[in-house]
Automatic annotation (TrEMBL):
UniProt key word Membrane: yes
GO molecular function terms noted in the UniProt entry: glycerol-3-phosphate O-acyltransferase activity; glycerone-phosphate O-acyltransferase activity
CDD domains linked to this entry: LPLAT_AAK14816-like (cd07992)
InterPro entries named in the record: GPAT/DAPAT, Plipid/glycerol_acylTrfase
Organism of this sequence: Aspergillus minisclerotigenes
SMART domains in alphabetical order: PlsC (SM00563)
Domain Phospholipid/glycerol acyltransferase span(s) in chain numbering: 44-263
Transmembrane segments: 7-26, 415-439, 460-480, 515-536
Annotated protein name in UniProt: Phospholipid/glycerol acyltransferase domain-containing protein
SUPFAM superfamilies cross-referenced by the UniProt entry: Glycerol-3-phosphate (1)-acyltransferase
Swiss-Prot/TrEMBL keywords: Membrane, Transmembrane, Transmembrane helix
PANTHER family the UniProt entry points to: GLYCEROL-3-PHOSPHATE O-ACYLTRANSFERASE 1
One GO BP: phospholipid biosynthetic process
Record flagged with keyword Transcription: no
């Protein structure tokens, strides 16, 4: 697909509209270390984890524009560019389409097995296969069945020997004897195949953008996911950086790692911390090795990719599984002093340090005992239906009953006051809430069915809630405006139903006849937006 070039005024208008939407969807967004973003010159923003599909790039574009006055072009899956709504919007904002092998994965006929897994683990033979078929090619990928919630094992094809025999570049990982794939790889297992994608056109477009002093954004994991840890990084980001420097060693390229840290990214009024780390420096020797090609090129790409991975680890909070992440967050809440609210960046930093410490000392008997105690504490909280910050209020020995009762009255009054402010917007906005919920769940199921790395598909929910609201809310407010304006016109012409209806339903009670209908329509449309925006922000 041909690239559509950025239209600056549309880009700025889009950022302004997205800012309004993000301010409503997120309760708090904090950017940390944005001063590290260069104001001019070529820049690659390397962001991870990619936990919120299109919202990640929108959030970053807003921060880059506001903090460094940079317009940025993000790499986007060519599959998404084919979407009528998404593709048009992304094209106007300068997105660079990338054809991904994972978007072209297909089930293969027959089964494969390893004839000699101990002595020749890269040799693969098939039963009822045809490796000479156009689906199979050198550089393509063989993907084994997914087991549980783990990512499926996959390896690239090095050589196609015949219809029922090929060789891999690297062997499949060793599975334990109780693993389902241990016997399946010896007797025969179903599999999928992904083609090799020629990315030269994409790389040329990116090189041109960087050498011209542009800002490129990339999510090196390759696609969005909802895992608590980073996926293995794709080599593309390292190839882009080394290739640009190989073409122009004096271009002054900067690689800025960016950590996308969310609290419940799929939920309305969630929070986020976007942290920019120290720039990654590319050594001239790596560039020369990249130019040399062959093994030297692969080593240069691998070493730079490892450096980028370490830089991303420093600005993200990674857990081996969801249970560990919940454990660390509970530990942080217990560690926090009573009646002290920690700033959001400090919350992320404490989580990161606790994860690092737990990963290093998780086998220590004291840590195991502490883990069990905190897990039991969490289970008791869930059984009681309370949060841990509410436990302190249950201590009646240190808090007299009358204080608790007065607090209850205060909070009931506060709830009623907020209800007055939010109910009008909820009444007007409920079709958007319902539609966004239904469509986001549908997209979540479709994304989960088509992915081999997602756990529950929650990474697409937030994106589709925002996109549906952006498209449906203006249409809904237009409908409200048409209905009310038509009713006002009908009443001004002394319609029968206006005469018999209660006075408070007659718009002439509130709108003088001297105000033109077109002016009232504009005012009412703006009023709908203002009421909804204010109510949602209060809520």
């Amino acid at each position: 697909m041909a690239r559509r070039y950025m239209i600056p005024w549309l880009y700025d208008l889009g950022i302004w509209i997205f800012t309004l939407c993000l301010d409503i969807f997120f309760r708090e967004v904090y950017s940390r270390g944005a001063w590290r973003i260069p104001r001019r010159g070529p820049v690659i923003i390397v962001a991870a984890p990619h936990a919120n599909q299109f919202v990640d790039s929108i959030l970053l574009m807003r921060i880059l524009k506001h903090a460094a006055n940079r317009r940025s072009s993000f790499l986007i899956a060519e599959k998404s560019m084919r979407e009528p709504y998404i593709g048009t919007m992304a094209g106007c904002m300068g997105a660079l389409p990338v054809v991904r092998a994972q978007d072209n994965v297909k089930p293969a006929e027959g089964k494969i097995y390893l004839p000699d897994p101990d002595n020749d683990p890269t040799l693969v033979r098939g039963k009822g296969t045809d490796f000479t078929n156009k689906l199979f090619m050198e550089g393509g990928t063989i993907i084994l069945p997914r087991v549980g919630k783990t990512s499926p094992e996959q390896q690239a094809i090095a050589q196609i020997i015949g219809p029922e025999e090929l060789r891999l570049r690297k062997p499949f990982k060793q599975f334990d004897q109780d693993h389902p794939l241990y016997d399946a790889l010896r007797t025969g297992t179903t599999f999928k195949v992904a083609p090799h994608i020629d990315q030269r056109q994409m790389f040329d477009a990116v090189y041109s953008e960087l050498i011209a002093g542009g800002c490129i954004g990339i999510f090196p994991e390759g696609g969005s996911h909802d895992r608590p840890s980073l996926l293995p990084l794709k080599a593309g980001v390292a190839i882009i950086a080394l290739g640009a420097l190989a073409q122009d060693p004096n271009c002054g390229l900067s690689i800025i790692p960016c950590g996308m840290n969310y609290f419940h990214p799929n939920k309305f009024r969630s929070r986020a911390v976007v942290e920019f780390g120290n720039p990654v420096h590319v050594h001239p020797d790596q560039v020369e090795a990249f130019k040399a090609g062959g093994t030297s090129k692969r080593n240069a790409v691998g070493s730079l990719l490892e450096t980028i991975n370490e830089a991303l680890t420093a600005v993200t909070q990674q857990a081996p599984d969801h249970e560990t992440l919940m454990l660390v967050q509970a530990t942080r809440r217990l560690y926090r002093p009573l009646r002290m609210k920690l700033p959001l960046p400090i919350v992320i930093e404490v989580n990161r340090r606790l994860l690092k410490g737990y990963t290093q000392f998780k086998d220590d008997p004291k840590v195991i005992q502490l883990k069990k105690a905190i897990s039991d504490y969490n289970r008791r909280l869930r059984a009681l239906g309370i949060r841990d910050h509410q436990v302190e209020w249950g201590d009646v020995k240190h808090r007299p009953w009358w204080i608790v009762f007065c607090t209850l009255l205060y909070r009931v009054g506060e709830l009623l006051t907020l209800a007055v402010g939010t109910l009008p917007s909820v009444a007007l906005f409920w079709p958007v809430f319902v539609t966004a919920k239904v469509i986001s769940v549908k997209k979540q199921r479709a994304a989960l069915a088509g992915s081999v790395v997602k756990l529950e598909g929650r990474d697409v929910v937030g994106t589709w809630k925002i996109l549906v609201a952006m498209g449906l809310a203006p249409a809904l407010y237009t409908w409200y405006t048409v209905v009310v304006t038509t009713w006002l016109h009908y009443c001004r012409n002394d319609g029968h139903y206006c005469a018999v209806s209660p006075w408070w339903t007659n718009p002439r009670t509130y709108v003088p006849d001297s105000i033109p209908l077109w002016l009232f329509s504009v005012f009412f449309f703006g009023l709908m937006i203002s009421v909804s925006f204010a109510g949602l922000r209060i809520g």
